Here is the input.
Amino acid sequence: MTIARTIAFFLLFNAALLGLRADEGMWLFSAPPCEQLKAKYDFDATDAWLDHLMKASVRFNSGGSGSFVSADGLVITNHHVGSDDLQKLSSAEHNYLRDGFHAATPEAEIKCVDLELNVLQSIEDVTVRVNAAVGADLAPEKAAEARRAAIAAIEKESLQKTGLRSDVVTLFQGGAYHLYRYKRYTDIRLVFAPEAQIAFFGGDADNFEYPRYNLDVCLFRVYENGQPLKVDHYLRWSARGAAEGELTFVSGHPGRTDRQLTLEELRFLRDVQYPYTLARLKRLEVLLGNWSARDRENARRARDDYFYIQNSRKAFDGELAALQTPALFEAKQEDQSSLREWNQCHLGVENALGRVERTVEEQKELILRQRLLDGRRHEVLFAPDAFWCDSFALARTLLRTAVERAKPDGERLEEYSDAARESFELELFTEKPIHTDLETLKLADSLGFLMEQLGVQDPLVVQVLAGKSPRERAHELISGTKVRDVAFRKALYVGGAAAVDSAKDPMIELARLVDPAAREVRKRWEAIGEAKQQAHAYLERKRFAQSGTAIAPDATFTLRLSYGVVKGYTEAGKAIPAFTDYAGLYARAAAHDGREPFDLPARWVAKRGALDLSVPFNFASTHDIIGGNSGSPVVNRAGEFVGIIFDGNLQGLILDFAYEEVESRAISVDSRGILEALRNVYGVDALADELQRGHR
Amino acid sequence: MTIARTIAFFLLFNAALLGLRADEGMWLFSAPPCEQLKAKYDFDATDAWLDHLMKASVRFNSGGSGSFVSADGLVITNHHVGSDDLQKLSSAEHNYLRDGFHAATPEAEIKCVDLELNVLQSIEDVTVRVNAAVGADLAPEKAAEARRAAIAAIEKESLQKTGLRSDVVTLFQGGAYHLYRYKRYTDIRLVFAPEAQIAFFGGDADNFEYPRYNLDVCLFRVYENGQPLKVDHYLRWSARGAAEGELTFVSGHPGRTDRQLTLEELRFLRDVQYPYTLARLKRLEVLLGNWSARDRENARRARDDYFYIQNSRKAFDGELAALQTPALFEAKQEDQSSLREWNQCHLGVENALGRVERTVEEQKELILRQRLLDGRRHEVLFAPDAFWCDSFALARTLLRTAVERAKPDGERLEEYSDAARESFELELFTEKPIHTDLETLKLADSLGFLMEQLGVQDPLVVQVLAGKSPRERAHELISGTKVRDVAFRKALYVGGAAAVDSAKDPMIELARLVDPAAREVRKRWEAIGEAKQQAHAYLERKRFAQSGTAIAPDATFTLRLSYGVVKGYTEAGKAIPAFTDYAGLYARAAAHDGREPFDLPARWVAKRGALDLSVPFNFASTHDIIGGNSGSPVVNRAGEFVGIIFDGNLQGLILDFAYEEVESRAISVDSRGILEALRNVYGVDALADELQRGHR
Here is the structure.
């Protein structure tokens, strides 16, 4: 791993000697890198060009990106983004996730269980209004409350005025607040999915590797009022794809980067947070892997969780390896020293760094209970580590809804705000299958984890386990709860606190038992976040004053624009070409005797003769992307669809912390490869025609 | 998990109402359960019967059991016991571990790389002599030294006098010391192994499960002076197998049990040691699993490590689940309280329990560094967790040999004693293949683990990493060291300290860097062990005084006798029959469409018609066994071989802490099933004839 060193060298080389910047940045559509594009590539990113691309880009709320590719509402994304929906639509009889799907007629398109898509319409800077609501002398906890109330008010007002989903986004770790308004679609139907074997050919073994051979695509159609959505802004399909070295763009929703973190915060990730997370992921990977191997139906039920766990594990492993490279810290140290020196006559930078360091100390104390009881995400179907199963997540949500909805909007936990209500209900009332065996497995393991982490004597652990072993307790809770019944959830949602209390549901009672501790942790965690934001906002202003140039903010799962070129690279002295082709796919399968995970679907074996094996299949490029960008369109200067991002290589995992373009690569499926497969393997010419024509 | 409760109930029921004891105990051959066998089964275990079984039993020093089954030195064990040797004999061209092996002629039998077998000849109680050497007023550290010196002297004297391998074994946690004398064989040749697919059919998924369908056998022949060993004591093969309910015996080498631990020690296992070990195993399982999936040759190279890791993980997971059952602790608490009450007029028991508790406190402090730097075992090819690779293990051994051999025998670390010299050299000069890619993978991960566990700022970590990332440092060390070269090792071994110092080998220099800290940890760890032993020896005497009955000591990887019956059980309301048959094997493969790990070798698919599908294949029994018993013969009253132990079920993992016979079962391959496969699948009639005749 000499990546970080080469970064430093390369940036220096590139910037100083050639006068050109690296292709760094996940740029805001409201602050695009026009100067850089003009200077380096002689490209004019006009407002119209940007507006069109923005409105053709789609966010999958389940955690990914996509784009409109026909005037009739057709959306393309990755198979691994659609897999959550494919899993929910599958049963022991129809395994669409494994076997694929194609709707031969419009009527055959199947409605997804609980998928929500968002299409960004506008961005408004509301920094002044948000900051005005927060008195300068407020303690972090009070400041966080005030800020949350101001944000809820802005979101609700916008929703009422425009009818659009309205989210205030925190940028630059609190340096700016922008209001993002989206059109929101919830009638999404499945049109086409290939088999999991070809979408994820090579499985976990090849994940984050290159060369690759994955048809990682999935097509949905957006409906409105029972009809396919008519779309003005969609991407025209490029039949010629991208050429090596050609300027292209990625428009998508990178989830999270950590480039603006301080040295202390990076140390915290390296020494505390990542080791915790990885140990937990590896534990779950072994649990689900072994359970899946026991029985094919087990494997089907656990498939989506298992993929998520393996994928996360490989990403975090790569990121931790990057964090364990001393050069990354040396570079960050230099940045921070230079800012300190530049600012040495004032103590502002010193103080702000000191404040961040104190928040890290608080995080160290709190993170274990935060992860166990609160969890990283506040979605309805995401439970914290001590109770990782859908049943607990639903139970907690029902319990809290009754309390939170009774409060004024601005005082609620954010996910219970009025502005988020529709998306929230969609998730809470999902009809997705929830399997008691898998739930029990997950909960038993989680309770065992809780017991190990906090200790058997911890009063909360004693209460949670109620004198039973983790397995006994999990079995009792999962078999006793009714929260998996949608009608039950609706009744409790409508009935409020009285209905929830009188239900005496064991899982809801468990959530109630844990709630005071969980809320306390969350409150403290949010106060830490607020203190961090204040310090970072200051540091960001100083950084801008020092360098005089704008940089892109860290990723926040909102729409961003990256630019770069299709390009191979050299790894351990070996040249890796930019493109792979179908001939390479068959060669790799043969090299493994077609054994899992290198087994080809029967259809692919049979249709080999019908395929043009020289057609490009996947390609590597220098775009600055990260998790959440999955499914993002790659477009050329003309705004045409030339490919779809589905992965990055292992070297690219350093992008969480710093941009690198010597070895780090984004990986896409080529638009030509997709058409070739649709026509000559699947014989779905009507769909291929729609892509090429731009309408049905 | 209601096992522990049923234990308590069952023991009560069995003992009190029927006047019969459960089939508990891994009995010493020098103190067999004659009374119990007579009372419950009307069986006379005569001295001649015991002596014959003892001398027909074989210990595999790589960690397992076996038995002589022909007068011409033929030994049968499990495939998973022989796998270590199969791996060492395999290459990319000849994968005996995966594909199996059969020597059609005596000349075709292949000599193992470094396998040592031991056959027990006699047991002598040396407790008085060992204890006499330890002054009552010595501090634990000094006492440990004195005890070690006394043991080394006894072993050396015995070796010189008898020429037999002589090991002093600590029993009852220090309550007794016995001298075990073995014939030692090192010219062991491979005769027959089936394919890994049928030996381990169902893989990790079915491991520790029942019903099972595994031909987990492997046959070797012992040679002496270039000729097959002539054996007086071998087991006659039973062509009729065992019947349900029939009394049978297991003679083998259970590795370790923890039944005599105190409450505090069990808590330590549950709260500290097992969580640590499992997190590490799961980390390694993911590492090796992913690496193996990338490439078939990777999979071959990692196969034996990977099996060891998965197998250990599943066992520890089951044991931890047993430890997390409150009833187990309630039973232990009752035992301890009853001993305390019985002894209340004296403070001896109270004091001894207090001393054990203090050792646990010390262990908590030390265990992390002990695991990272010292390791659990002191074999030549076992490295501690921070440096887990063969290269480090060899480097440390070379470094220490030069120092230790210069000291008087009794003052050395035990593995460098004169008595152990021959076995030690066999291991150190092994010709087994050591692959640099796998070594680098393992060391890089271990260094990352070290960095996470002790922290980046730890002075030792700083020195070990030398300013590099774990990956860079591992690459540098593995590619730079010469310890994988046997000639190099021999030269340094002979050359002593001067040769070792002047070699400037980077891995040896790393071992040198770590050695002061590692030795310090080991010294303290051994002092803790000594203090524990003293307290346990006292408690053991009191327990005996209280109950007046002898119990079997905890397992110590020495020869033990268990008895029990072939018997099915009920699991979650479902009756599990005692026997499986070949029809069941094919049915299970079909239920999984023959996909890994339920894929049958081609030969088994082809020979289906030639097999009698009704022949018993595997069976379950109530024997008290544990890891290390793998490969133990199951014999009937006549001392005939009716089966071979290869596993226990998941419920049986509680046997580490307490005996249970309601659901806990040992699992064996039936003698009839073995013959059927040898004759009708493999067509190796000469080998089958030798088994049935008892000679070639």
